[in-house]
Amino acid sequence: PYQLGSASDLTVWGTSSHTWSASDFGSSFQVRLTFQGNNCGTLSLNSLVVTVYSSTPTKFDVKDPNNAVLPSLGAWGAIITKGGNEQNGDAYAPANNGGSPFSGSNALYNGNATNGGGYIYAINLPSAGATVNVFDPGFCAMGGNPSGAGNLGAGDHWIGTSGTSYPVSTYYTLWNTGGHLGLDPSNWGTPVYTSGSLFESQTGYDPQNGSNPGSATSGCDAYHDTWWTIPAGSLSAGTYALQVTTTKPTDASKNAGTNAENMFAIEAIPSGTGSPTVYGYDKMAVYNNLSANNVVQQFYIAKVDQETGAGKTLTIDFFDIGDSSAGTIQILSPDTSGSPVAVPFNYTTFNYNASLGKVGPPGNCKAKSGSTVGSDACSGNGVSSITVARMNGTNPISSFNNTWIEITIPLGSAYGSSGLYMGGWWQVQYVVSSASDLTTWSVNVNGNPVHLVPIP
After folding, report:
1. Other CB atoms within 10 Å distance of the CB of residue 398
2. Of 26, 229, 368, 406, which has the highest C-beta tally within 10 A?
């Protein structure tokens, strides 16, 4: 058919002085065709199809597969492609690091699925079993958020050059751990399911939520902005591991030249009674994508019961925090000792150090001379918060860009003796003035990895 116009070429449909609105497309909407011929015969028009693209983002509630509206958790699960840079906030999946002072390759890169790479999400299923679902599993670039920073929807976007020459591939592998949850998939036997090429080499963008970012393909896969049920049927009770990677074990070239970021969410729906749990194992990358500034985001960061924690030290490592004009972090302890029963947690004091980093020389901490402990200093003892970003006059300062911060919290021998909130769930309150930020989190108790999940 002959195409008169498109979402990227609107000149055929009117002058630039006219701004289209929703009222233009009511019951009185008409299209007039004028044939200016000169003895050229007869023109026949069998049909005319008009597609209306809206520059106003499509808004809808995110619902679970049972049609229940889900509250916002303030963040999405996230992963950057192999060809991306660690400096953008994902400490493990990209193979490069283009930021000072660790420019070059990413020493923490572990993207290969065959060695436990990428990010692993543990899924505990009750006796009745469950199905496992992923929201918006594939990549489809979204336009910028008109009410704040970041991108619309889950926030998928190219960080580097976009388009068909830079496709994005994401791989999901579901394992039955057989009760042997660990970081080495060789202990798990054969995968229950692998997505293979289902979300491979994607170059699309959502035309209803942003313009073409540059030689991309209009349209998304069938699971864009909706749930994909992993086609493994109803799974029996047990502990499963969903592994998310952007490195293909059989083809190292996939994503090697692409710098992009894919966001998603994971949920397990029980087949009967019982409550499944989903949590990051050892580490996870999260992308907060908010429609407003100065929003308090509260995460479950680790579950430490009395037996595990008493007399030991809780270590929380987080990377590239505070890409904002202002931001603070506080830690919430589940130990209710000395507090009224109605108080589910206490703000706690802690020690932190950003000057050591995890790789190479001292971290890239930009705390200014004269900073006081508890503001944006590179280290502190017995503090109750960390200022991770601030304004220097009219210029935003991200004090910990491309830097690891390690928080240590000594847990006394009496830890949990008077009760623990929800069995020992520690939480983090993270406030940023910018509406988007990708960070990586890892938690251990004296070297033992623990659970990480967003707060419900």
Report:
1. 22
2. 406
Per-residue pLDDT tens over the stretch 311-343: 999 999 888 887 766 678 899 999 876 555 556
What does the H/E/C string look like for 190-240?
A: CCCEECCCCCCCECEECHHHCCCCCCCEECCCCCCCCEEECCCCCECCEEE
Other C-beta atoms closer than 10 Å to the C-beta of 295 total: 16
Please state the φ and ψ torsions of residue 389, each to the nearest 5 degrees.
Answer: -160, 150
d(CA 137, CA 79): 11
d(CA 17, CA 236): 61
Q: Token pair of 225, please?
A: 């902005």
Contact by Cβ (8 Å): 159, 210? no
Gap between the Cα atoms of 121 and 452, Å rounded: 9
> What is the mean pLDDT of the segment spanning 356-361?
42
| pTM (predicted TM-score) | 0.80
- Cβ 94 vs Cβ 107: under 8 Å: no
Number of Cβ atoms within 10 Å of the Cβ of 392: 11
CA angle at 207 for the pair 202 and 209, rounded to the nearest 5°: 105
Sort strands 283-289 and 313-319 into parallel, antiparallel or unpaired: unpaired
- Tell which residue, 269, 265, 267, 268, has the closest CA to residue 288: 265
